[in-house]
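Hi R.,

Here's the chain you asked about this morning:
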Amino acid sequence: MSVRDLLVLLLAVPALVVGGALALGLTIPVPIWGRDYVQTYALNGERRDIDLPEIYGPDDPTRPLVVIDAGHGGRDPGAVRDGVQEKVVVLAIALRLRDLLLEQGGVRVALTREDDRIVRLGDRSEIARQLDANLFLSIHADSAGNRSDVSGASVYTLSNKASSEAAALFAARENNADRLNGVEIEDQDDTVSQLLVELSQERTQEDSTEFARLIRREGEGRIAFHSAALRKAALVVLRAPDVPAVLFESGFVTNREDRAKLTTEKGRNAYAEVLARSILVYFARRADFDDPATDAPDARETA
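And here is the predicted structure, written out as tokens:
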């Protein structure tokens, strides 16, 4: 076989594979470097069917719904130090937070995972979208590598640049969707659709920022924060155009003090209580809902 024939073969085989995948509507795993190791993208751009989780709380669709996402899971342990796995401690916080909210009443709750399973990165916020959630909270625990002196919680919202990129992707994918934040985008051309998504994303980012600030406020004196407690980043898990979303880094598993809080019931309960108060106050401020904090006077007094 000549060099030319070999080059033709090397170029033709990938093209045939991709073409066949497109024709069959299959997905191709794309490796990425970082803490979520593999993403899968639908080549035809259509929304995939997802097994939606159970919704706990009042059997009333008018009540606000928060989706709690415990990061990592399954074969992805997240950050690890001295036998402490991120996926384990954040699931414990998520479950405690669910229980606290249900005890307070008035808020519906769903979890992206309730056990040690992996959930696709792109599916996490998509679960919130398909459930028509009013708030999405992803819980993680950070790592500072070899530095053991870095500590404290932080709250991430989506960066403006990532928001614009996400708007373009959502417009392309959701051009035939019914609505975003109550705005019809069905039967719009691509330019108008993208503009509507960008406007929806702008409103969503404002609500996300408000919720992030509430976590910082409610956590003051209750949990320790990093010196840069409020941050923005291009996090895939936050790229939903119509669901306010934040990522809460509860602490650093690489820090001894943080690790102690993350691995004790008392420490995890402190994180869950701050998040529960923040969620109740956030919904209490929304004109769309009756006050979900009726049975939680402490939260309502600080609203």
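One quick note: The first helix runs from residue 3 to 24.

Cheers,
M.
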